[in-house]
Amino acid sequence: MVSEDNDASNADRPRDFDLGSFSDDPPWTIDRDELTWLPPLRVARQVVRSDLPRLTRSTLLPPAKRVTTVTRHLGWAMGRWAIGARRKGGAASRADVSRRLRIAAEALGPTYIKLAQIISGGEGLFPQELVNETKKCRDQVPSETWESIRTVVEEDLGRPIPEIFSHFERTPLAAASIAQVHRATLTTGEDVVVKVQRPTVATLVRQDLRVMAWIAPKLVGRIPISALANPPALVELFAETISEELDFRLEAENMLDVAESFAKLGQRDYVIPRPHPTLVTRRVLVMERLDGFKFDDVAGMKGAGVDTEKVVRTGMIGFMEGAFIHGIFHGDLHGGNLFVLPDGRTALLDFGITGRLDDRKRTALLRMLMSGTSNDPKGQLAAFRDLGALPMDTDLDAVVRDLGLDTGEVLDPTQMEADALVAEIQRTVKALLGYGARMPKELMLFVKNLMFVDGAIATLAPDLDILSEITEITMYFATTHGETIAEQLGMAQDAWQLDMDGVKAGMGLGEDVERLTYRDLQERRDTIRKRFEGRRMT
Question: Does the residue 333 lie in any domain?
Fold first, then answer.
């Protein structure tokens, strides 16, 4: 989906137009050969990855002082839940333990708040009660003192702030778990945003990962959340996502790589801020300043003539296209990480968490799309396996039988009795866990983004026909990338066909359903949720 209206003429294009989907009026242009911070990053990524096994290995003796603090807060939370709401079971129990874990995370500081923030975007991956509670952690991180921020900036950039910035706002635009962001103006006149890492967060994160790795095995089977998110696997997943965030040079490279992917795809409805050519270090990232509408400011967008349905379509196509075709995508889409420019383009921010797929996993993701829209359950399972969600020696035919995917029966959850619905979910989860199912990082990030897009539809385009959009998006991939996809999957270009009845069946819909808006979908979800109320799910 190329935005022809926003495609500048050749004469007016910035010099780095072909290098990335950047703004049309740049404060500076990108030349990769002149980026002094870029060359060491190949080694830096390898060092981060090689260090992960050590950070997530369970040891007999974790950091004593930190583990005492963590154990005290988590022990208090779990103890109060165990003698109270646990006896009630069901939703009340899950809500209580989720609330207590959220309070403990806030008390334990940046690492645990970051973990809560990641969980908060995992609707459909984690229990809804836990998601609802952890959403409260998104904006509750106190900012660092100005003295601390100034010290980090001057240490990393090697000069006093007045020699680099003519203006630097002491009050941050936003304060997150790892860093905070300030508005500033360079002495050369460019308006910028400066992301500054919290002074002690790197040391604390590494200590906390070792503590988490020590605690996680002890939580297996002890809390309801464990049934859907194996704690040791969750720690490994979290360690993968947070470790690269501690080096802002890697984030700057992520910005360039995602922007380049969009440019190669002709996807100009996204805008990525340019990182500064020289002012990027491990703990400081200076970038181009962009401004626009907050993602939930529907009235403001419509008042400016922005087509909000087009914004949603851009979101759906953009991140999937980057993942399927180039194996890279923004890994943490949420309302605080993007906004909409007055011309309708979407600006993406905060690339600390970025999904990167090697060829095997990218091809598996493609196979998941193709098999999911052609009613091929075994093909979907094979894709999940190749993504790392199932062991490579999994008997896929046995999984198909155990999950009842070979019957062709359509189970509509809105028509099932509560006990039957709970039993079906328990049976499916138990079967998957029995085969060693887990949630690999890339798949979790991809599904989290799908959940965000789901919510974006609710906000920006609640009357969008979801079935029609599935058809259009599938046809877009078939017509735009059909030859590439067919070659990579080893199939004839005309061998694949959209099976809309199969798609409907996968959503629990009958063949007679011709239209499904987000409002309709939400009504179905409300019906399902009400069937759970008052029911115990162990």
Answer: no
